[in-house]
Amino acid sequence: MIEPFRLRNREIDNPPPMTPGKSLKLLAFAIMAVGIILGVILALEMRRSPSTAASKSATPSAAEVTPADLHAFGTAPISASGDMQRINEALDDLSSSKDAETSSRILAKLRAYLLTLPKAAASRLIEQFLDQKKDGATKLEFAIEKNGFLSGAPTLRVFLMDLLAKIDPQAGAQYALQILSTPGSPDEWAISLRNYALGGDASATQSLLEEKLEEMLSNGAWRANPSVGYLEAFDAAVYTHDTALTPNLSHLIGDNRNPAVAHAAFLALDRLVLSDPAAVLTQLQSQPDLMAGHEQTRADYFARADASDSRQKALLEGYLLDPNRTQQELNAFAGIYPNQNYMISNNLLTQSDTPTYTQVVARDREALTTVQGWMGDPRFQALQPQLQTLNNRLTTLLQQAPTAQQGN
Predict the structure, then answer these.
(1) Domain-embedded: residue 90
(2) pTM of the predicted model over 0.70
(3) Which domain holds residue 204?
(4) 343 or 304: which carries more pLDDT confidence?
(5) Backbone angles phi, psi at 82, to 5 degrees
(6) Residue 242, domain member (yes or no)
(7) Is 303 strand, coil or helix?
(8) Comparing C-alpha atoms, which of 76, 27, 72, 32 is closest to residue 55?
(9) Position 391 in a domain
């Protein structure tokens, strides 16, 4: 309404020649027109709802909004069609995006907007868009932050599922059940496993995650051409302590045609050994065929055993005294026990904990005491070369420990 008023002013500023009577009439008309226009403007301002005015003045720009602002603007008006248009516009922008940096800005702007909506409105809007089955690639890699949420999503749908769980964990869990009901996208399944773990029914979480992860790992098409999300989903086995997956993971470790899946399986089983050593090592000892052809990897796992725990020490001794153990595998064990190599990574559900320097030294000292005890045990007579190697290595490490500690 303001722009026509400005045009009228310019017309009055440069009037054509006119008679005095005509001038007075036009002047009166102009004054009346100005009054009418100002009245319309005032009326429109009064019709604006207080919540709308407040939200426009209080809502920061997209670049200023963070997840901490999630509930700060809960009075924002809900307009289903207008809000859905924001997501559709982001989808259109992603289709024309030329690079990951541009896509990141598009998604950041959409995230900022959705976080200004009330919790119920934002979650409902995301679900409605997901129900339409529309999607767009982002040119971003599937990447995880330290808190388990994504710093990069390969598609708009994955981005929205990740955001849904952050906004409303219960809604994210419920929608996860819908995604996990059909084998659609491995990346969406990976996010849905996490979303259900975060907000699902506690009594059903364990069994459902185990069932769906096993189904995921058994999907030949997904396994043959694994996405990053598919590989990250292995973390669910660690989260659920699903030692029943040990045979499956062992089989995947042996898949030399698929190194990415083999490595993901190796890491998952290694972390299961760390979290449930007695259970997993019992399986590996009682089922030697599980690691056939990968005996050095088995040595790495058994070198995780903590000899200060009586059950783990018994398992370790049974492993070392097994007459089927080859010299090559025993040498591999002697070169790493106690295995204190740790993989640091951001995971969907679990944290990667590492011991302190003091704990590392204490475990080396405990291992040396155990090895020296074996050296004097007649049962270990055939293993003297390996035990001597272990004794020398651990003695050297412990002699260097005070110097290394001072250096740190």
Answers:
(1) yes
(2) yes
(3) 65-219
(4) 304
(5) -65, -45
(6) no
(7) coil
(8) 76
(9) no
